[in-house]
């Protein structure tokens, strides 16, 4: 089990490092979804470009396969939109969540009896045998034949529509456009909300999506407004359970993209802001020891981890951090990733960054 968890974490590193790469996005930036949130009814056939492929929906999908991609953002978006009945099979799971109800709801979804190949996703023959009407992937690499996955062209030939989370078009796509690369680098909280809007159009639940986006955005903006005039503090996001992602066996430290945007919304600034995606992999002990850390954010990777114990160990290892002296920390899990739970993480982190304000 430990070996399997380690291998899965190594695969997860590819997605997380990708999400962290590049400069942070400005709040409100757009991604090339081709379909924007709205409150009206969907008119079918609905046709738009998705990562360079023209897709058409003649009716709301009813048999959806959600590929793994070491993500939970897509399946969580389906659940929050009340689309669980459309899920034929789900391959995404995490085991711990900032929304305590989410792990049980994900576990309750059908899996279709699917098994993963060595690249930790559903092999082509299983996808085709299941005969979904829509296959959803968090990244373009989910349709890479060299990894044993069904290509989008294969699926189309079988009458199956495919959909990639648009902000991740460039991930696993060698011929990505500059616009796709820019959207990929500049992931933000807004990127998470835009995927909800896209699903709203595809499944003709636009009013539901519009309302959900409004509620989630309001929670984030409420925190932004509360901390706007307060001095930002240096925040470090560290996942001790993902130490396999770091060449030196250190906790996986997340920076860039949506991580930075979540921290900014909470009234902080990433302790490693401005670093490249390589920081998670190459961070050494000296860099971590000399970092300015006012607030520690401990990320949980498995339900067996204890956030308070992990924080205590890091504080003992780096007692000169301001966070260690003040014992300023909080615990998150999936809320800092690309996905619909960013508001949960923003609220948690803001309470640690600006307690009592």
UniProtKB/TrEMBL annotation:
Transmembrane segments: none annotated. PROSITE patterns: FE_B12_PBP, PROKAR_LIPOPROTEIN. Residues 66-357 form the Fe/B12 periplasmic-binding domain. This is ABC transporter substrate-binding protein. Residues 1-25 form the signal peptide. Keywords: Signal. Pfam families: Peripla_BP_2 (PF01497). The keyword Signal applies. InterPro entries: ABC_Transporter_SBP, ABC_transptr_periplasmic_BD. Belongs to the bacterial solute-binding protein 8 family. The keyword Signal applies.
